[in-house]
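Cross-posted from the bioinformatics board.
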Amino acid sequence: MPYVDFSPSPRAADLTARVKDFIETEISPAEEDYHRDLAEARRTGDPWQPLPLIEELKTKARERGLWNLFLPHEHAGEYAARFGTDGGEGLTNVDYAPIAELTGRSAIAPLVLNCNAPDTGNMEVLLRYGTDAQKQEWLEPLLDGTIRSAFTMTEPGVASSDATTMEATAVVDGDEVVVNGRKWWSTGVGHPDCKIYVFMGLTDLPENQQSADRHHRHSMVLVPRDTPGVKIERMLDTMGMYDEPLGHGEVSFTDVRVPASNIISGPGEAFAIAQGRLGPGRVHHCMRLIGVAELALELACRRGLERTAFGKPLANLGGNRERIAEARIAIDQTRLLVLNAAWKLDQGGPLNALSEVSQIKVAAPAMAQQVVDFAIQLHGGAGLASDFPLAAAWTAARSLRIADGPDEVHRGVVARLELGKYK
Amino acid sequence: MPYVDFSPSPRAADLTARVKDFIETEISPAEEDYHRDLAEARRTGDPWQPLPLIEELKTKARERGLWNLFLPHEHAGEYAARFGTDGGEGLTNVDYAPIAELTGRSAIAPLVLNCNAPDTGNMEVLLRYGTDAQKQEWLEPLLDGTIRSAFTMTEPGVASSDATTMEATAVVDGDEVVVNGRKWWSTGVGHPDCKIYVFMGLTDLPENQQSADRHHRHSMVLVPRDTPGVKIERMLDTMGMYDEPLGHGEVSFTDVRVPASNIISGPGEAFAIAQGRLGPGRVHHCMRLIGVAELALELACRRGLERTAFGKPLANLGGNRERIAEARIAIDQTRLLVLNAAWKLDQGGPLNALSEVSQIKVAAPAMAQQVVDFAIQLHGGAGLASDFPLAAAWTAARSLRIADGPDEVHRGVVARLELGKYK
Amino acid sequence: MPYVDFSPSPRAADLTARVKDFIETEISPAEEDYHRDLAEARRTGDPWQPLPLIEELKTKARERGLWNLFLPHEHAGEYAARFGTDGGEGLTNVDYAPIAELTGRSAIAPLVLNCNAPDTGNMEVLLRYGTDAQKQEWLEPLLDGTIRSAFTMTEPGVASSDATTMEATAVVDGDEVVVNGRKWWSTGVGHPDCKIYVFMGLTDLPENQQSADRHHRHSMVLVPRDTPGVKIERMLDTMGMYDEPLGHGEVSFTDVRVPASNIISGPGEAFAIAQGRLGPGRVHHCMRLIGVAELALELACRRGLERTAFGKPLANLGGNRERIAEARIAIDQTRLLVLNAAWKLDQGGPLNALSEVSQIKVAAPAMAQQVVDFAIQLHGGAGLASDFPLAAAWTAARSLRIADGPDEVHRGVVARLELGKYK
Amino acid sequence: MPYVDFSPSPRAADLTARVKDFIETEISPAEEDYHRDLAEARRTGDPWQPLPLIEELKTKARERGLWNLFLPHEHAGEYAARFGTDGGEGLTNVDYAPIAELTGRSAIAPLVLNCNAPDTGNMEVLLRYGTDAQKQEWLEPLLDGTIRSAFTMTEPGVASSDATTMEATAVVDGDEVVVNGRKWWSTGVGHPDCKIYVFMGLTDLPENQQSADRHHRHSMVLVPRDTPGVKIERMLDTMGMYDEPLGHGEVSFTDVRVPASNIISGPGEAFAIAQGRLGPGRVHHCMRLIGVAELALELACRRGLERTAFGKPLANLGGNRERIAEARIAIDQTRLLVLNAAWKLDQGGPLNALSEVSQIKVAAPAMAQQVVDFAIQLHGGAGLASDFPLAAAWTAARSLRIADGPDEVHRGVVARLELGKYK
């Protein structure tokens, strides 16, 4: 393994400190109220209508220059100056990673700082591959935080771990593209501001004579939500949670027609785009999970010191101290692994970090799931209820062992590259 | 370890076969509709109003003589003939265990067969320790399935893993007992038929001169729900799920007065009662978890054979077959361990099976959690949503690593008895 | 899972009690001296010359009727009366299992009771498949304990997990069979009494026109050690241990000629024989591992109570009590699983217990390895040295994750049968 | 976690490259012969007489300037110029770590490069705390590679995980110090060049009026091996291996008298010295374990590609690829964790890295044990024998879960510091 340097630039260190302060002074104090109001909306109102608090916090974040910090160093270009932070450039992955970790401690921070998935990934796709017209119409309002977006890829009818099994279609018909199919786990479609879907489907159909190999038959298409034929069939729960107001939807596309110019980077380019899109996004997810795990361990330590049973603080009973130590070790080594992937991405882009990105995608969710599970156990019944953020944190970690490629697929990538050294 | 015999009596084998048939032909076919209707009620109605299907199935179950099968061999007495099955006696733990396993495959079967916790445990307490008046007033309608009950023990303010830290009080005042305190995770209080709470509180207060050691200061009191001062503060979710229409509640008791004759088995007897209550109940829980795990493994195998990725059935990819094998091994050895605990209970009662009951309380939930987690993974995103019973199954297994004594306490019991051999 | 009954027959219970007494009063008291003398022989003499103690103990065991207890109920026939115990029949697998467990607590007990692998498996093969002449020449002295035997199957040049890759040959040439090849991990060949090898090789060569499928091309041949062309190339160590005086050898066979009548059950029958041979043998191995684990847990508990650090007995530090509990749970559930496999074998023979036998072959070594590893840890440095039987126990458990089929192959069998339910 | 930089200095990068080349071209090619000759010596000669190869390689290493690379940046002083490499300074921990990793791939490289434990730790102690006379007499020949040393701390009669339980004594009597007690696991005492023992014992005896707390009562004393009263009672095996010609001894000290000037840093300073000594030493151990694990994974991959079973390379069977991926992930994240500890040591010394050093002491041996265990499994029987370095590697990793503080003690340190954040 070549040597690594995880030092942030001075500007990144300053931004990290300011994000930390903003979360501690503005977001965290409001969070308990936010969740209480959201729970109330679930019982008696419409939890899919965003609570006004988020917009208020977004305004504050933007005023403080803590906005679109995810903007990638390599592709941000002029947009960093126009929509980014203090007119500066986009951050490197190593620079942004500690910021992502901090936002992982809060359920709403990513939204507040306009750094929420899948908007970040969609914006990055538009930055890298979008035409000027596409950028003007969709990227700018996304960077502005006035609209949201979804990424519709996973399908209910096939094993999406192998994306080539995809059944949805995006067939070019003259100067239009006709979109058909059913997608699910489309995150964010529940939000009223979610105006644009990045849709992935098969363009080079199997029944035609195929010139392209199976990784060059799919296209990514920008489908505005209001296009006729687009229908949100239902919202899906994850372990009973709906993650309102963003949520995860099952969406049907029936003879949906959009201009052929809505295809991103041309027909057949979907896999190439997806590949580039997922590296930084996975670093973000994984760093947020580090933040999740840190929060869980902090809560476990505090509970372990405060509560008493059998005449001792819980922390001193049985194997609890050993488990606290194992959690600390697991968090620290996983953080370093994620920083390492970020550094490899910065050094040479996604192709330089194939193994590293897959490594963290396996390691971070499993670590976070384990640490949160321990924290739940130390909280007893309280850990399972919404009184603490632990149940939601567990679900987030568990979901990420499936979303963005299941563990098994990523282990396959790592093994292939490892065995390749000896062939 | 002495030798064991897990063979059921002919009558038990016949009942098991009939329960299997009833679940397959009556309960399972109705289950999908039931869950769809319940989901609909959550969105638009009142999920706490029981759907009529349950009462219909209860009637059928009773007509077929599949009713109150949990009735314990040792304590069922005349009630087995009056409210039990085909006029026969109560079953032994070994006899009942395979029936409990079968009911674990269905979310509603325990309710339908009038074998649902905590009613079963409460009925057993009344059978063993109740006065004739208590039995007539509360046991008979419970056996009749016309009312339900709750067990209010766990408290939000203390570490309930050490029950002696309990803060609620049940103070005798003349011929009344005055009940105060706050309880949570009181399962079943959401149901409109839940009429009676078994309440546990401190009678021999610390500020008084205490004659009793710390395991003889608490009493169990029958508190009708409608008594003034009883208030359900809120219903709690477990990983986002409310388990309607039974649910888990937080309940406050404020100067609640009931006759002193509502104390079960006399003041200070709560721990003695709790001890006897928990052995069979834990066998039931654990056998149901065996059923949960069997169902999960079946779903995983079916999904693994049906879905294809990378040109192969999922089951043939990577380590999936090894994980299927590990699941089979884990299920089978845990079932045998639970049967062993049942057999020890049958041979000599709870004191004969202290280690065995704690062993299964550690082993079965952890096993089920692991097997269900694997089944979720093989289902991809579908496994996390309510489309499959896996998310609820995971939550049930996870909860039982905390409910009825957390893993750590049970490991402590096993270790104490193990080390005791060498002291 | 059908119901099971692990109760031993009264005769088996009596024999178990007598074996326990014999081990406690005769074998265990001699064992420390035995190991000291063996260590001395390693330094200054020839550890491959058996120490006289073993023969003395064998005589005592035979006098007490504790001899050849492994003799299988189904195949023992007249030999049980002539060479077995108190003129009685062979024991069932369920009957013998607790005896095997007891012998697992001692490194020399299996030898002393003439129940040592691979002699037991070889004797069983001769009982089931041998001609009268083969029985008279080899089975009777083995039952008499005057000679020993080896089973030469595994080869250094191929992956023996797939036995069809075997390269050694046993070619019929008129009334002779010509044996060629190199075998290793041939257990027992170091002992001077080891007079007969059961050799497995390819008879129906690939270069010939093959009529047989790949599981009917191999033969088992009785090859006396002194036949010209047989050479023990070297003795192999397992984690540094040679297991003198039996040991594990690498043996070359060069144009070794024996009468064709030395083929067991005819040419091409090797796989059929191997299949039948391995069921009970695996139960024996696994039950001995239960004994190994019980001994390790006992040593861990005793050490944990006797030694003090940081002002407390080691047992009370950190997670040690939880680990003791986990060990107890793991041992008990594995024992029950092994008894279950034994019961299935008794009910319907090897084909009735394919999954069960593979299950225990995975579960028991892994469990024993884990429990012994914990016991080593609690002993500190002492646990790693030969001062305690733990290092040897660990090695025995670890080896059995490879010997008699590696874990992965057995998991494959379990998974195949599990998935077969849904095809 | 503050940001980290694991980049080596240009000189360190150059030295690392040269060590890699030296191991590949000089040490590795000789290693098979070395082990064969050593095995032969075990059978027929005296394995405690070092084979001449080591001295030949030492000469070559020194000629190439690859000598005493462990010399610590902070304390090497003039000795780096006199005995170190190319007249340069000592390396930082971050600089030396990759070199230590490389040496971990070879059983003899640390010895050849004069970087072997416990000599390195003893030299560091003398550098930091030794008087000029002590340095001249013992440090210089150690740096010269003409003598070796041992560290005698662990005792057979007490739980050495708690060093305050130590029973050996070092009592000042006028201008002499009288040493008594029994030590074991004294690594290196088997070597004929091992001339000096660093002995730790109690100076401020409990029966005296104690002025010092329990961490200021012990002294470290330089005891030449030839002093009357010093006796090597026996050499200890680790899982059957003696690690000749260095080995691990049990040593008795009976009224051993040395000048009081042999006390290092004055009476009562042993714990202070030990604390400073163990930080870098643990980094060295852990980085060598990274090298061990890398070698094991490489062997596993090669074997997995070369051997075939069931018609496929072993690597493609069952869960093997997933396990290869898990091994890669585990190695990489552990390496980063060790580099992080090295970096913290470099930034602020042992007190700055208490948690980090304990973290790696838990994580690295467990990781290496796991990876090697997997590699053994993939090698089948060969993996258990001395034909491959895997059995020895496993033993080395397993030993280090006990040596230099057992896992449980290090987890305790990590947990104490973690909980300390919230007190």
